[in-house]
Specification:
about 80 residues, two-stranded antiparallel ribbon, about 10% strand
Length: about 80
């Protein structure tokens, strides 16, 4: 990574460590072997909220359908 960035190993390590600690980058640093392993980040907040919103809408639709079926059963029994 240092070679790609054209800077010292120490500087690369400091900057990468800072980014990992501040959760700007997901990576694991193996200092002994000099290997950095990057991993896919977690969903951004908007993506999480959109996913949560979709799940809630699905649940509410199922509850509404269930209520409709219960009311229809009550009407046919009277």
């Amino acid at each position: 990574m240092s070679q790609l960035l054209l800077c010292s190993v120490e500087r690369s390590e400091v900057e990468l460590s800072d980014m990992v600690v501040n959760k700007r980058v997901n990576a694991k640093i193996n200092r002994l072997s000099g290997i950095v392993t990057f991993s896919a980040g977690k969903k951004f907040t908007n993506e999480r909220l959109n996913s949560w919103n979709t799940d809630i809408n699905t649940i509410l639709a199922k509850v509404e359908e269930t209520c409709h079926l219960i009311n229809r059963e009550r009407v046919t029994q009277v």
